[in-house]
Amino acid sequence: MVVEATQQYKGLYHVLGGVISPMDGVGPGDLQIESLINRVKDGGVKEIILALSTTMEGDTTNFYLYRKLEKSGVKLSIIARGVSIGDELEYTDEITLGRSIVNRTAFNGTV
């Protein structure tokens, strides 16, 4: 619903139903990962945008999906991560700020 509210994405969705979280007893078999892999195998999928929470569990799930799909020929991308508009840099954690610097974009006069 959050992605849909942006009105910036016009493709199809695949809902995994959560993230891999061993501490909570959630493994890959508990999610809709095999059905995603089957969709890719059936053809027609050009890109998968991984839009998961920026948590350890979200990153683990992203990596798992990457390993499962890296040889499929489908473009894999993740949503941008970084400092939010309105945030103060002095309160931003080092990992987020570091990723923001590494993945910076060209400034074209607009924000």
Automatic annotation (TrEMBL):
Protein name in UniProt: Recombination protein RecR
Highest taxon of source: Bacteria
Entry keyword Hydrolase: no
Toprim domain boundaries: 1-84
Function: May play a role in DNA repair. It seems to be involved in an RecBC-independent recombinational process of DNA repair. It may act with RecF and RecO.
Pfam families in UniProt: RecR_C, Toprim_4
Natural source organism: Bacteroides graminisolvens DSM 19988 = JCM 15093
Gene3D superfamilies in alphabetical order: 3.40.1360.10, 6.10.250.240
Family: Belongs to the RecR family.
UniProt-listed GO biological process terms: DNA recombination; DNA repair
Gene: recR
PROSITE patterns found in the cross-reference section: TOPRIM
